[in-house]
Amino acid sequence: MALKKRTFSDLKNKFSKKANFKPERFFDLGKAFLDATGLPGPAMGHLQMFLGHSDTGKTTALIKAAVDAQKKGILPVLIITEQKWGFEHAKLLGFDCEEVVDKTTGEIDWDGFFLFNNDFQYIEEITDYINTLLDAQDKGELEYDLLFLWDSVGSVPCKMTFEGKGGKMHNAATLADKIGMGLNQRIGKSRRQDSKYTNTLVVVNQPWVELPDNPFGQPKIKAKGGESLWLNSTLVFRFGNQKNGGTTNITAVKEKRKVKFATRTKITIMKNHVNGLGYEDGKILITPHGFIAGREASEEKKSIEKYKQENATFWSEQLGVGGDFDLKIEKEND
Fold first, then answer.
1. Of 14, 148, 182, 292, which sits 20 to 30 A from 255 (CA to CA)?
2. 91 vs 86: CA distance, rounded Å
3. What does the radius of gyration of the chain's CA atoms come to, in whole angstroms?
4. How far apart, in whole angstroms, are the C-alpha atoms of residue 55 and residue 260?
């Protein structure tokens, strides 16, 4: 009896296997951010990066992601190694947190729907902490989707370097091992439909510029910590210029009193393996209350006037005088 010939369809059914993933969802950083970048914010279930020089809007974006996570019932996990965190600033941006004073010692703490940890000395402590929380989630001890927010990844060494036995190469190798080959897999796996929870990791990072070998070559922007973070990040937002901050300060002026009102910055979608969308020429204003303005100068002017009216009391307190005030645009920062 002749054997039945297998069709390609038979072979495909036998050897092909498709994992089903949840629909893409994003954290919402506000309309101004959407107008500037073409995306609402970081994508859920991915490792991604906020890349940029100091004072270009990365921490504001990080906090606004935490604010939206709280609204969605997703637990923000704040991993702070830059030591520039301020709960007062976060609360001004809409983060739900309350000051708690110890009646015995007088020490101030903050309470709310979040986890906060700034007690780290090296990279392995951070990745162990994240894995511990993911393990607790697997065991049913932490029944929330998690948003890990690390500010910033380039500010802490690996254990070997911390002990004086390593250097930058060891830091990069540790990040490649612990994040690229470890956490990135656990975070990405949570996007599968058979995963009960969806977890996200957003890292803040500063760039450094690699100069070309010849005078006619173009400099390349690199992320601190080696290639692993760049390669494993599915979405990279760059704040400011490639070589420098490229920001412009806007100062509020009233009766010779001057205070910083806002900072104009650029936002570029450098990498998007989530849906391939996003702009490379966005501009936005950073204020103490979040992002405002639009892509055009006329929209920026309207946004500023609306923001001034909505926060008149706040700015009167900052300037020490009431009423309207003038705005002075400074030259672009290097």
1. 292
2. 9
3. 23
4. 13
Distance in angstroms (rounded) separating the CA atoms of residues 116 and 215: 46
**Side chain identity at residue 273, one-letter code:** H
- For every residue of 264-324, DSSP letters joined together read EEEEEEEEE-SSS---SSEEEEEETTEEE--SSHHHHHHHHHHHHHHTHHHHHHHHTS-S-
Residue 76 burial (C-beta neighbours within 10 Å; 0-12, 13-18, 19+):
buried
* CATH of residue 208: 3.40.50.300
Q: How many CB atoms lie within 10 A of CB 71?
A: 13
* 291 in a structural domain: no
Q: Is residue 117 part of a domain?
A: yes
Q: On the CB side of 177, how many CA atoms lie within 13 Å of its CA?
A: 10
Q: What is the pLDDT of residues 107-158, one digit of tens each?
A: 889 999 999 999 999 999 999 999 999 999 999 999 999 999 999 888 888 8
Q: Other CB atoms closer than 10 Å to residue 100's CB: what's the count? A: 12
If one counts the domains in the chain, the total is 1
pTM: 0.90
Report whether pLDDT(166) > 60: yes
Give the residues across from 167 on adjacent strands.
Answer: none
Mutual orientation of helices 168-175 and 123-138 as an angle, nearest 10°?
10
For residue 295, report the phi and psi dihedrals to the nearest 5 degrees: -80, -20
Structural domain span for residue 141: 26-242+266-279
Strand partners of residue 235:
48, 272
